[in-house]
């Protein structure tokens, strides 16, 4: 069939959160501690880690990218390779677990637009190019992600946003991705956004950018976004949230076979009670694996945050698959079982032949994308279909009457929101 998905080997990995010092470990880099962390990750049978340099530590001045920091990143990648782990690297951190990490040359007396100032943009490009180039010859280097949810700096509810237009956001992403490609040609270079790109009307970073720029689409599925609060931890809408984002992204993709990377997904307590974390992990991953063209799953995160560190939101402390002293938790065992079942197998789920039409007022700007958010009319219709076992895909209103597009995706039945009771 023309719409049949290309088979892909599935990847299972974890976002690496160091046990000693969290991401501040770059200030006191200890390769032995990193190695012990990576041993505990490899013991789960996972195949890759996503790692996070802290931007101000690596580039404290616009024209100083610290060679020693870059060497430490390469050393981490080599340590991962020794344990059979591939490495994906995020560049502009940016934002992690409620904390912002921006270099002093972009703030206060040196305040300049993160996305539009020519000097800042040039510094960012050189930074990303340098990291990519340092790793380009490592066979276990997967590629660069521009940064972790950098879109949050562009709009409310950030307390001090650098406001930009949709066109400026798109141009900035193109420049950053080009810098990654220049440093490591042919790598899997992409960008990643948090929920606002998918759900917030007027947000300058858009679904179209997420689904069309870069080598894959990254989705970050967090059910503390109102999904678990509204529907409950065990509800179909909650357990299908990751799959929903995968399918939502595919509506905007130009390439019907574009890979989608579930780059962050986790079980946040107390919305997902700790005693239910393993079940939630099994259900969430199983539903995501039922989506064609899934590249892989990267769980957030590897290890719990140490209670010695202050001021994190409470849920951030317990998101690890392993405790802070590297003991696996029930969710780790669940993910390890899934990874073992799929090792060596081809990912070939059935085509999703029924599609639900999403109308967001225009694909490029998506001025009404809030209909896709938890509680929105489109979200609730899709979740209702999923709960009934219908395996819905998503098609843009502008494409719903295009036979060639529907055929390319294997869609034979098109439903409207009003058709779902």
Report on the architecture of this protein.
There is one protein chain. The chain has 14 helices and 14 strands. The longest helix has 18 residues. Helices cover 34% and strands 14% of the residues. Strand 12, helix 13 and strand 13 form a beta-alpha-beta unit. It folds into 2 domains: 340 residues, Glycosidases (TIM Barrel, Alpha-Beta Barrel); 66 residues, no CATH class. The strands form 4 sheets. A 7-stranded parallel β-sheet has the order 7-4-3-2-10-9-8. The radius of gyration is 20 Å and the shape is globular. The protein has 421 residues and is of the alpha/beta class.
In short:
Keywords: Hydrolase. With 421 residues, this protein is an alpha/beta fold.
Keywords:
421 residues; alpha/beta; TIM Barrel; hydrolase; Glycosyl hydrolase; GH; hydrolase activity
List strands and helices in order, with pairings.
Elements: E1 8-9, E2 11-15, H1 31-42, E3 48-51, H2 55-58, H3 67-82, E4 86-92, E5 95-96, E6 99-100, H4 118-135, E7 141-147, H5 166-183, H6 196-199, H7 207-212, E8 217-221, H8 227-231, H9 236-239, H10 241-252, E9 260-265, H11 277-289, E10 294-299, H12 330-342, E11 346-347, E12 354-358, H13 377-387, E13 393-396, H14 403-409, E14 413-415
Parallel strand pairs: 2-3, 2-10, 3-4, 4-7, 8-9, 9-10, 12-13, 12-14
Antiparallel strand pairs: 1-11, 5-6
Helix pairs in contact: 1-3, 3-4, 4-5, 10-11, 11-12
GO molecular function, one term: hydrolase activity
Keywords: Hydrolase
Organism: Streptomyces subrutilus
